[in-house]
Amino acid sequence: MDSPPAMNRPAKGASSTIRRFAPLVILLAGIVAFFALGLQKYLSFETLQQNREALLGFVGQHPWLAPLLFIAVYAAVIALSVPGGAVLTIAGGFLFSTIPATLYVVVGATAGATIVFLIAKTALGDWLRAKAGPRIRRMEQGFHENAFSYLLVLRLIPLFPFWLVNIVPAFLGVGLGTYVVATFIGIIPGSFVYASVGNGLGAVFDSGQTPDLGIIFEPAIIIPILGLAVLALLPIAYRKFKARKTE
Q1: How far is Cα 186 from Cα 228, in angstroms, rounded to an integer?
Q2: In a 3-state reduction of DSSP, which class is residue 44?
Q3: pLDDT tens digits, residue range 111-141?
Q4: Which of 99, 105, 182, 192 is deepest in the core (most CB within 10 A)?
Q5: Is 4 a member of any domain?
């Protein structure tokens, strides 16, 4: 069988490159459009307060559609890596109550984070690893061995911006399944805290105040979350202890 003409190979390479980078270009265009259209002004407590009756009415009239729209909007905000996640989580608690809102937030945030992860891994992962050389490969090996535990800790404790934690694992060889499960589990506590704040948002608005986004750092809240993070690190500590004993 004859091999395909060489003149077709550049076309195939160009097509592959387009498929690889098209999602990244679309994502960047979405970020530009978000700010160009001024959509960030809608992700505020002022907008929520001004439209609270209309939003509550919509949720009451559309008990199935409203959660789906909320999840889609949340996923889009996370995928675009724009500010507003905390406000949306509190808004979810206000509109749906604590437990349902926590579920919707976790599903939406995990979906949005996974989109960013896949785009970063497909478009930039190989290139960054090639540019970084041995250093990132050593980091990749260490992270890969304990990927679930490390990622779970990064999700539990907001040491770094959420958008940064979304993309870094893509460059360190983390598998999709590990990424999704660790993200889903790790953001539950924080989502629950902010959703519970939103559940009492009506009274806060009536008093003329705004919610305290720093509530996650209150000792009564952050200490149990830190405890969960320590538990997540125990498997790593055990493996390192066991490895030293066998040396």
Answers
A1: 9
A2: coil
A3: 999 999 999 888 766 655 555 555 555 556 6
A4: 105
A5: no
Q: Identify residue 132 by its one-letter amino acid code.
A: A
Indicate whether 55 belongs to any domain.
Answer: yes
Note whether residue 234 is domain-resident: yes
Report the distance separating Cα 102 and Cα 104, nearest Å: 6
Task: Please report where in the chains the tokens 């629950």 appear, as a residue.
Answer: 192
Name the domain count of the chain.
1
Give the pLDDT confidence score for residue 65 in this predicted structure.
Answer: 97
Cα dihedral value 84, 86, 92, 94, nearest 10: -110
d(CA 219, CA 247): 40
The structure tokens 């509190």 sit at 90
Buried b (16+ CB within 10 A) or exposed e, 130-159: eeeeeebeeebeebeebbbbbbbbbbbbbe
Q: Which of 184, 178, 110 is nearest to 144 (CA)?
A: 178
pTM of the predicted structure, to 2 decimals: 0.83
Domain that includes residue 139, residue range = 9-246
Q: Which residue has the tokens 């507003």?
A: 84
Token pair of 67 as six digits: 């959660």
Among 78-87, 130-139, 159-168, 212-221, the minimum mean pLDDT is found in: 130-139
Tell me the torsion sign for CA atoms 157, 185, 27, 123. positive
- What's the pLDDT tens digit per position in 140-166? 666 777 888 889 988 988 778 888 889
Q: Residue 209, SS3?
A: coil
Q: What are the b/e assignments for 201-212, b being 16+ CB within 10 Å? A: beebbeeeebbe
